[in-house]
Amino acid sequence: MGVLLCNGGITSSFVRNIEKSVDMPLDSDVFRVPTGYNAPQQVHITQGDQVGKAVIVSWVTQDEPGSNTVLYWEKNSKHKSSAEGILVTYKYYNYTSGYIHHCTIKNLKFHTKYYYEVGIGHTVRKFWFRTPPRVGPDVPYTFGLIGDLGQTYDSNQTLTHYESNPVKGQTVLFVGDLSYADNYPFHDNVRWDTWGRFVERSAAYQPWIWTAGNHELDYGPEFGETKPFKPYTRRYHVPYRASKSTTPFWYSVKRASAHIIVLSSYSAYGKYTPQYSWLEEELPKVNRTETPWLIVLLHSPWYNSYAYHFMEGETMRVMFEPWFVQYKADVVFAGHVHAYERSERISNIAYNIVNGKCTPIKDQSAPVYITIGDGGNIEGLANNMTEPQPNYSAYREASFGHATFDIKNRTHAHYSWHRNQDGYAVEADSLWFNNRYWNPVEESTT
Ligand SMILES: [Fe+2]
């Protein structure tokens, strides 16, 4: 029997009630503007350097510029330090942004709880975060995975499930497509503001590591908006310079025992392009003795057996997959397809245009590919799959949800995917990852 006639892994028989995903109305609780004149809103944090000793704090003041200062202090300390940030604004068609503040707090201690305050006078708002432990090979750390979130009732359920998951995520790896403001006429940027207020309840307290998706492009030449990524880059700063990147769309951070590489599906990646050159320089720098876990984030999946966005990730796969096998990446997380899928460890790098070798094969040096674009946005679920399920596809299901990647030490990490219809503790799909550098044994996918 030929490969094409074989069924692959599991297509879940779970049947979800397919209802349309609708955006929460503007007067929803989750979008509420904090009280007080010019109160800071849309507060969010991300890693601010290469190793986790810095944090970028961002927020918006709507009425006037206000203060750029962040006050911060260690738990149990009376001494408050301060850091000065910068202010940006932008116009988009007929929308004018509030005052967007970005402030990098540096030289923090590892593994420490800090409180921080933004705003002045009667509208000071206080939050907290924990810095990660010092980078090292056996440092346990738990990442959450969310993609294509949007701002529907389903999005809210996804975020609630992530927050309530007993496997407590410490940092979100976000695989792109944030607000879906571009689904509104003229990409109504008010929906970027509501999204910022919606995710504040998590993003103000733990870093969200950002990846750019197609809904961040906001390319609208028909109404004069020709500069791609304008709202995204004004609102979401990332520490790209720390990894010698020249733009925010691709960069890397180390956090605990993981080296995380963020790539851009919507920037050039052909040979000689800046992204190609950066990745070529970056991969040899990954030190698996320091950071055993090599995690890649990108938006458009390379291995996708849904009928939606079929083959869109193919050109990037052709360019970069040999490197991911050579450098033994552990896992590649993508979004874009509004469903869930996990691959076997496979590669498809033998083809050279004349030899006909263009079938994915089992490859224990290859990463597992996970599509986690199931955050719950307004575009609804991708429920059409290509049939039969390809051999390389280990599990696929069209449900909304999130995942966690729970690193235990240099050899093992427990991965699990949670669908929104289940209780907070239920794992709908899970796998023990064996580190590709320290423990490259075959994983059992059943
Ligand atoms: Fe997308």
UniProtKB/TrEMBL annotation:
InterPro entries the record matches: Calcineurin-like_PHP, Metallo-depent_PP-like, MPP_PAP, PAPs-like, PAPs_C, PAPs_N, Purple_acid_Pase-like_N
Pfam families to which the protein is assigned, alphabetical: Metallophos (PF00149), Metallophos_C (PF14008), Pur_ac_phosph_N (PF16656)
Residue stretches making up the Purple acid phosphatase N-terminal domain: 40-131
Catalysed transformations (reactions): a phosphate monoester + H2O = an alcohol + phosphate
UniProt superkingdom: Eukaryota
Domain Purple acid phosphatase C-terminal: 366-425
Residues annotated as domain Calcineurin-like phosphoesterase: 142-340
Residues in the signal sequence: none
EC numbers on record: 3.1.3.2
Spans traversing the lipid bilayer: none
Keyword Flavoprotein belongs to the record: no
Name of the protein: Purple acid phosphatase
Native organism taxonomy: Eukaryota, Viridiplantae, Streptophyta, Embryophyta, Tracheophyta
